[in-house]
Fold this sequence. Notes:
The longest helix has 38 residues, at 2-39. Helix 1 packs across helix 17, helix 2 (48-74) packs parallel to helix 14 (287-300) and helix 4 (85-108) packs antiparallel against helix 5. It is globular, with a radius of gyration of 24 Å. It is mainly α. Helices cover 74% and strands 0% of the residues.
Amino acid sequence: MFMARMDGYSMNSSEKDILDAVFPLLKLLSLTLIGVLLAHPKTQIIPKATFKLLSKLVFALFLPCLIFTHLGQSITVDNFLSWWFIPVNVIISTLVGCILGMLVVAICCPPPEFKRFTIIMTAFGNTGNLPLAIVGTVCHDDDNPFGPDCHNKGVSYVSFAQWVAVILVYTFVYHMMEPPMEYYEVVDEGLEIEQQTENEEISRPLLVEAEWPGMEDQETEHSKTPFIAKIFKSSRNGQQSTSHDLESMGEESDNSPKAMRCMAAPRVVSKITIVAEQTPIKHILQPPTIASLLAIIVGMIPQVKSFVFGDDAPLSFVTDSLQILAGAMVPSVMLILGGMFAEGPNDSKLGSRTMIGIIVARLFVLPLLGFGIVNLADKLHCLVHGDQMYQFVLLLQYMTPSAILLGAIASLRGYAVSESSALLFWQHICALFSLSLYLVIYFRTN
C-alpha cells in the first residue's frame, strides 16, 4: 500500500511538471490562433494595417510600460550588481550560437551569399517579446512554481538583458548583414533595379515592423551596399585608397574637421572611423531601451523610487495607469504573431537543408548547451543563490527562436529579406515543440 501511494505520488508529480511546462504554451498558442483567425486572408476580420498599428503600440507603449513598471520596482544598487551574469549570458549564448552557426555552414553548405546570414540567424535569439510572453503565462496562475513574486522578477530579469542584445544587433549584426561583395557586384552589372523591385514587393512580416517602426525612413546611402567590403577591398588587393575615396564613402567634405582628422590618421584607423560613423548606434535608443534605462536610474535612487513606486507614493496613480497599459502587451504580441502566421512564409533561396540545420541548431542543440552553461555558472556561484526564476530566464535566452529584429536588419540592408522571413516563420512554428520539450525537462529537473 505504501509503495502504491508513493508510485501514485510520483506519477502525479510528473504530471504536474508536464502541465506546468505545457499549459503556459497552450495559453500562448490559443492567443496566436485567435490572431490567425482574425488575420486570415479568407476571413479578413481585421485588416493587416490594424495589426501594423497594434505592432507600433506594442513597441512604443505597451512594452515600455511593462519594462518600466516592473524593472523600476525591482532594481536596486545591490540587485544591479548581483544580476551581472544576465547580460554576460546574452554574450555567451551569442558566442556559442555563432560557433553552432559555423558548424551549420560547414555541414549544410548553404549558398555562398548566405553563409554569414546562416551564422547570424543561429546565433541571435529573441530576448524580448517572446520571453516576456512566456514569463507572463507561466506566472499567470497563483500556484506557479516560482512563488508570489514570479511575474515581477521574471519581467525584471528579461528587461535587464535586453539592452545588451540590442547593442549587439545594431552594431555587430548590422555590419554582418551587409550584402556580400560578390553578390552585390552581380547586381550592379544590370540587375539592381530588378532586385530592388523584388525587395519592395516582399511583404514585411508584422513582427519586423513591431521591432523597428518606420524602418524605411532609416535607410542611408550605404544601407544596402557592401560598405565595409568596399572600404577594405583595396587593402586586400594590395592597393591603396585615396583620401578622396575615404571621404566620399564616409560622406565627409574636404573642409570638414572629421575629414581632416581622417586624412591625418593612419589609413586603417581612418577606415575604422568611417565604419564606426556608419554604424546606426543612435537607433539603440528605442522606446523599450529608454524605458529600461529610465527604470534603472529611478530604481537605483531610493528617494526618487519612493516618489514613483509604492502604494503611498505621490505618483502611484501614474504607475498604476502604466501597469494597466502593460497588461495589454502579452496578448497583443501573440495576436500579432498569429497575424504573421496567417501571412505564411515567403519564398526562400536558402535551401531546405540549411533551414533545417539552423532550426535544429538554434532550437534543439543550443538549449542543451545552455543547460550545461547555466548549471556550470551555478556551481561557480555566478548566479543569485536559490532564485529559480533567475535560472529560468537565463535558460530562455538559449531556448527562443531567432530574434525578430534580425528580419528588420535584413530588410534595412536589402540582404536575405525573404529568407529571413521564411526562416523566422518556420522557427516560430517549430519553437512550439522545442519549448515544450525543454520546459518539461526544466520543471522535471528543478
